[in-house]
Write a structure and sequence with these properties.
It is a single chain. The protein is an alpha+beta fold and about 210 residues long. The protein has two domains: about 1-35; about 40-210, Porin. It has two helices and nine strands, in the order αββββββββαβ. The protein has helices spanning about 1-35, 190-195; strands at about 40-50, 60, 60-75, 80-95, 100-115, 120-140, 155-170, 170-180, 200-210. It has an eight-stranded antiparallel beta barrel with strand order 1-3-4-5-6-7-8-9. A hairpin with a 2-residue loop joins strand 4 (about 80-95) and strand 5.
C-alpha cells in the first residue's frame, strides 16, 4: 500500500509540475505574440459532400461559411498559428432507392492551423478542425410525406484534418481549404440513410480581411 501511495504522490507531483510548466511557457508565448497578433474576418463558399460506404450516389451541395480569426507568429515572417470561430453549412444530396434526400448541416466550427509562409506571399496551412452541430434538416424531395428520418440521430460533434493554401496582399487574402472529416455523422435512422462511416468532406474558397491589434 505504501508503494502504491508513493507512486500516486509522485504522479501527482509530476502532473503539477507539468501544469505549471505549461502555464509558464504558454504565458511567455502569448506575451511574445501580442505585438504581432492579427485579427480578421473571412467568408466564402463551401462545396460539400458526405462520404460513406453506401449509398454511393451522393451529390455535392453548395453552402457558405463566415468566421473570425486570430493569427500570431511562432517564428517571425515564417511560421504562424491561426485559430478561427465561425459558422459553416455542409451537407449532401442523397439518392437512396426510389427516394432522394436533401441533407443540410449547420456547424459552429473551430479550425486550428499551422501556417507557413511570408507576408504578401502564399501560405500553406495544415492542421485540423472541430465543429458542433447547431442545426440540421433532412427532407425527402420526392415524397415528403414518407420521410421517417430523425435528425436527432445525427452526432453533434465532428472533427477532422484540414489543408489549405492562400495568397496574401497586404490586408487581403484569397484562399482555398479542404476539410477531411474523421467522425461518423449518424446513428439509428440517419445511419440507415447515410451508411457506415458516413463523414463530412468540404472544399472552401474564401476571401478575408485582417488587421493588426
Amino acid at each position: 500500500m505504501q508503494f502504491i501511495n508513493k507512486i500516486t504522490d509522485t504522479l501527482k507531483h509530476q502532473m503539477r509540475n507539468g501544469i505549471v510548466l505549461a502555464v509558464v511557457l504558454g504565458s511567455v508565448f502569448l506575451m511574445n505574440a501580442q505585438e504581432s497578433t492579427t485579427y480578421g474576418l473571412k467568408m466564402g463558399v463551401n462545396s460539400t459532400n458526405v462520404f460513406a460506404s453506401f449509398p454511393d450516389d451522393m451529390s455535392r451541395k453548395t453552402g457558405f461559411h463566415i468566421a473570425s480569426f486570430v493569427r500570431f507568429h511562432i517564428t517571425e515572417e515564417l511560421i504562424y498559428f491561426q485559430t478561427e470561430l465561425g459558422y459553416s453549412r455542409k451537407g449532401s444530396e442523397v439518392n437512396f432507392g426510389l427516394n432522394a434526400y436533401d441533407l443540410n448541416l449547420d456547424y459552429l466550427e473551430v479550425p486550428l492551423l499551422l501556417s507557413i509562409g511570408k507576408k504578401n506571399m502564399s501560405f500553406v496551412e495544415i492542421g485540423g478542425y472541430m465543429s458542433y452541430l447547431i442545426n440540421s434538416n433532412v427532407s425527402n424531395t420526392i415524397s415528403p410525406s414518407s420521410t421517417n428520418l430523425d435528425p436527432s440521430d445525427l452526432n453533434n460533434f465532428d472533427y477532422g484534418l484540414s489543408l489549405g493554401l492562400n495568397f496574401n496582399y497586404e490586408q487581403y487574402t484569397i484562399g482555398a481549404r479542404y476539410h477531411y472529416g474523421l467522425a461518423d455523422l449518424g446513428n439509428g435512422s440517419m445511419k440507415d440513410l447515410l451508411g457506415e462511416q458516413s463523414r463530412n468532406r468540404s472544399f472552401q474558397i474564401y476571401v478575408s480581411y485582417s488587421w493588426l491589434k
